[in-house]
Amino acid sequence: MESEKIKSEKWQRFQDYYRLSMSPKTLKEYSAIIKLIEEGKFQIKSKSRYLQTLAAIKKARSAGIEIDYKPEWHKREKRRVKTVQDKLITREQLKQILQSVPGTAKGKELKFAIELSFYSGLRISEILNLNKSDIKCNDSIKLSVKGKGTGRIAFLPLNYKDKIAGFENFTITLPYVEQAFTRIVKKLKIKTTFHGLRHSFATHMLERGVSITKVQKLLGHVDITTTAIYLHCTEEVDENMRALGY
Question: Can you give the pTM of this predicted structure?
Answer without folding.
Answer: 0.63
